[in-house]
Design goal:
Length: about 425
């Protein structure tokens, strides 16, 4: 016989039971209730709503008068009642606590008056039973809350990881970055099934497909250098229980603030890259222009040198030919040197050798010019008015500075080859 059937009409059936046997039956019902409630609460797949809906069905049959008993569980503003629930003045209740905070209440009612027992019409064992169940519910709520908290933190970390991947993958593509982020956000909030999101950057908007402008929203401003450039908005499409910030958790406030900061940093990076790109293009354009200018200068320099050489050939060289015919030996030597130097106007030997060998003195450079143009040591001595021995010492110093000492290299040949290489 089922417990409920057995105990219906206690006055009728109770006549055949002694006090001890009757008490044993009551304890058996209470144990069955605790067993069923425990099974509900250890099922981690069940939600609180499923647990409470099952629990209110187990309570009435476990009390002394199940045929007139009904039950109600109130938890965080939600009610769960047994079949045929109707409150009355004959009530036994126990509060559900999370730590020191009251979060709900379990109530068992009789719909008719019954004889007074230990607590009105209720037994002292029923007080122990309802208090035990309330304590178990409080402990189960702590466990479920810890599990839910862990799940929420994992979702939030997953969101931040996903945002990092999007920023790395799309680099500087505004649309793909911010549409990708906005599509990622709902899954990180407590109620993803009713969550929508929007990101505004300047005049651009990025929304989830289910976005609606709802009153239940959480917003974080996106700023650069303390100046607002946009916002992140998370909204629920229906009203939900109040937590830390309306229906939102305090951890969700931290998350949305971190996301706003990350988006701000991403915008700054993208803008900086765009500015660097523009500067790079401008610099490349300047380099192109500078190369054109240098090319033009070089062309003009060649043109000027050509004109100067042409003028020397047309105007000055004929004069030298006339002077050479009428000059004595010494004058002819000077004219020959002068003529050779004029030929250096467009590709000067003196400048080239002085740059290549900075240790050469001005006198040594002049003597190099004489030697290159075929003047002997004696000729150079006569032209400069110095001793032949002095010119010989200069030649030795020049060979040493040109790294020709103890080498079987003709100085005249070397200087003329140097001129050809530099030209």
């Amino acid at each position: 016989m089922h417990f409920v059937d057995f105990f219906v009409g206690r006055n009728k059936m109770g006549k055949n039971k002694g006090p001890v046997e009757q008490s044993m039956h009551e304890r058996e019902k209470e144990l069955n209730c605790l067993y069923n409630v425990a099974n509900l609460m250890i099922d981690h797949e069940k939600s609180l709503e499923e647990i409470f809906n099952g629990m209110v069905g187990y309570l009435p049959p476990s009390w002394q008068y199940p045929d007139i008993a009904c039950a109600r569980i109130t938890f965080r503003g939600q009610e769960y009642v047994s079949a045929g629930f109707k409150p009355s003045r004959w009530k036994q209740s126990a509060n559900i606590f999370n730590g020191r905070q009251k979060v709900g209440c379990i109530e068992v009612y009789y719909q008719k008056k019954r004889p007074v027992m230990d607590e009105g019409p209720f037994l002292k064992e029923e007080r122990i039973l309802i208090d035990t169940i309330a304590c178990q519910v409080g402990n189960a709520y702590k466990r479920i809350k810890l599990e839910d908290t862990l799940k929420e933190r994992i979702k939030e970390l997953g969101c931040l990881y996903g945002v990092s991947n999007i920023l790395e993958k799309h680099n500087s593509d505004y649309n793909k970055i911010f549409q990708g982020i906005v599509d990622l956000l709902p899954a990180a909030w407590q109620y993803p099934g009713i969550t929508c999101a929007k990101i505004i950057l300047n005049i651009e908007e990025f929304k989830t497909d289910n976005y609606k402008d709802m009153p239940w929203k959480q917003i974080a401003e996106i700023k650069i250098e303390h100046q607002g450039i946009g916002l992140i908005e998370i909204a629920y499409t229906k009203d939900m229980p109040v937590f830390d910030e309306g229906p939102f958790l305090k951890e969700e406030r931290l998350l949305i603030n971190v996301l706003a900061e990350r988006i701000s940093n991403a915008v700054k990076r993208i803008r900086a890259e765009e500015e660097l790109g523009i500067e790079k293009i401008a610099l490349e354009n300047k380099n192109i222009a500078l190369k054109e200018v240098l090319k033009k200068v070089h062309e003009e320099k060649i043109e000027i040198a050509t004109r100067v050489q042409a003028n020397v050939d047309k105007i000055i060289m004929p004069i030298f030919s006339i002077l050479e015919k009428n000059a004595n030996y010494n004058d002819a030597s000077v004219l020959k040197l002068l003529k050779k130097n004029l030929e250096e106007v467009t590709s000067p030997f003196t400048n080239a050798i002085s740059k290549e060998f900075v240790s050469l003195s001005p006198v040594e450079i002049q003597i190099c010019n004489y030697i290159k143009n075929g003047f002997s040591t004696k000729d150079i001595a006569q032209l400069r008015g110095i001793a032949v021995a002095t010119v010989s010492r200069h030649r030795e110093h020049i060979r040493e500075k040109l790294n020709l000492k103890n080498k079987n290299i003709n100085l005249v040949t070397y200087l003329n080859s140097f001129k050809m290489e530099k030209e």
